[in-house]
Amino acid sequence: METAKTKWAIDPYHSEILFKVKHLVISTVSGKFEKFDGSLLTSGDDWSNAEVVFSADIDSINTGVGDRDGHLKSADFFDAANHPKLTYKSTSFKKTGDDEFVMNGDMTIRGTTRQLEMKVSFGGIMVDPYGNTKAGFELSGKLNRKEFGLHWNAITEAGGMVVADEVKLALNVELAKVQ
Fold first, then answer.
1. Which CATH number belongs to the domain containing residue 128 in this structure?
2. Which domain holds residue 64?
3. Model pTM score
4. Which is higher by pLDDT, 72 or 23?
């Protein structure tokens, strides 16, 4: 007999999708995506082998500087006009410790798909004041932006790069049990 599937949906009001990248090799610029959607499908309440799908709207990128956000949306970087979303679909979700997992999946940015590994920490389950069952997770990972076609860069007078290739990802996600 097959275990019943449980669907969880991202609660956008209690979740954040953050990234960090080095600028001039000496400081870090942070940003986030304001609009995103995702869900997780489990076998009962077992997180192992969970199936995760996620997308973020490129036009919702926010680094706190409008001109920089506009540049990131341009063809120099994400090319939001032709690639309005980035997507992620898990290929594995494996338990590595008591509340620790490693999730592998296919990340697609700007029409290019690459494998991306994320470390996942499970924060627990709680019923909110309205009777909704919620689960919390923190995820972290990193990617090389150039592998996804985000090649723009400039060189300083000293010969250094303006934008680092490595982008660190940090997601704080609250899921609501749907069924």
1. 2.40.128.110
2. 5-177
3. 0.87
4. 72
